[in-house]
Design the sequence.
């Protein structure tokens, strides 16, 4: 053995003698990351000799600490896998759809005599929700939605004051959805003589469609009060369980966007979506800015009794607009089932 090798061996022993036993593999990684590797190999002249000696030293330390040397995936340069994070909640997941009443000709409710819009139809509205219990959340949203001008929601507004109703449970079993209320769901005003301007069968239909959409079912809905079946819902006699009736739907209704939606961009593109059942499947639309029509066109949806989704894209520069979606009467060219949506482009 040469004099150089003797000095090298003594230096290695001195290095190893300073190593204290530890129980965790993390200590090895920490020493490596902090650059505390021994520098005794630097003056070595031979690259191959250095590689062999370093490998021997690492194995010796690993055996001293009674651990397995880390592989490449666990080394200091390996990428640490990202921890699972909670999936971002989308807008759709924070919304629930409730069905309210709108005049079939788009005439505001307060221009009619009596309570509610004349010639009313059902329309869907997306409202914020916790989405923890879809059926229960949807009914609560219906009970809490106070309709603006042009709409009517008896479940929240009553005949000038709110109903004293609370939904107790929503259960879906054996092909029937049961909605149980605490409070006078059958007839909240037994002593009143009400002049309804709306078909009162629509009140039950509001509830039925709201619950069915939340639970993604077309099963009928049974309404109970304190656990007992009722024979009427908000003054209207019903046959229980209640089925959804498409005769109360307009031929065209928009789901997105909601009225008074603000979009950002210059220009901004957004998509209008909804469902329809029109003559030859044609859905007409136009966009007004004040009295000027700035864009118009048509989309295809359902027809001949079959409901289908329609959609069309809109590109607009900044400003305030009115989007109108409707069916054109084959008889006289008038606009039927007019949907009017106010949008703003920032």
Sequence:
């Amino acid at each position: 053995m040469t004099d150089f090798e003797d000095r090298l061996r003594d230096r290695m022993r001195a290095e190893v003698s300073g190593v204290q036993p530890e129980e965790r593999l993390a200590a090895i990684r920490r020493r490596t990351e902090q650059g505390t590797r021994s520098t005794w190999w630097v003056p070595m002249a031979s690259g191959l000799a250095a590689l062999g000696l370093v490998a021997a030293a690492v194995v010796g330390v690993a055996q001293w600490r009674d651990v397995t040397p880390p592989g490449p995936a666990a080394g200091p340069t390996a990428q640490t896998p990202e921890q699972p994070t909670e999936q971002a909640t989308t807008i759709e997941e924070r919304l629930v759809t409730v069905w309210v009443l709108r005049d079939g000709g788009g005439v505001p409710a307060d221009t009619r005599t009596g309570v509610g819009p004349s010639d009313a139809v059902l329309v869907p509205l997306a409202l914020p929700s916790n989405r923890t219990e879809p059926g229960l959340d949807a009914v609560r949203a219906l009970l809490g939605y106070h309709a603006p001008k042009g709409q009517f929601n008896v479940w929240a507004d009553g005949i000038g004051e709110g109903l004293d109703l609370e939904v107790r449970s929503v259960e879906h079993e054996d092909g029937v959805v049961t909605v149980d209320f605490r409070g006078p769901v059958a007839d909240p005003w037994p002593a009143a003589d009400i002049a309804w301007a709306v078909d009162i069968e629509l009140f039950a239909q509001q509830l039925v469609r709201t619950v069915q959409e939340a639970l993604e079912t077309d099963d009928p809905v049974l309404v109970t009060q304190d656990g007992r079946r009722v024979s009427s819902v908000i003054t209207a006699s019903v046959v229980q369980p209640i089925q959804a009736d498409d005769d109360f739907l307009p031929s065209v209704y928009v789901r997105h966007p909601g009225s008074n939606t603000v979009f950002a961009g210059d220009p901004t593109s957004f998509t209008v979506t909804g469902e329809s059942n029109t003559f030859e499947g044609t859905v007409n639309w136009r966009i007004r800015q004040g009295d000027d029509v700035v864009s118009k066109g048509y989309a295809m949806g359902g027809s001949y009794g079959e409901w289908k989704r329609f959609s069309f894209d809109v590109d607009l520069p900044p400003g305030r607009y009115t989007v109108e979606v409707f069916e054109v009467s084959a008889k006289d060219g008038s606009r039927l089932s007019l949907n009017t949506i106010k949008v703003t482009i920032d």
Observations:
- Confidence is low (pLDDT under 50) at residues 15-92, 106-112.
- Helices lie at 3-17, 26-33, 47-65, 134-144, 154-157, 201-215.
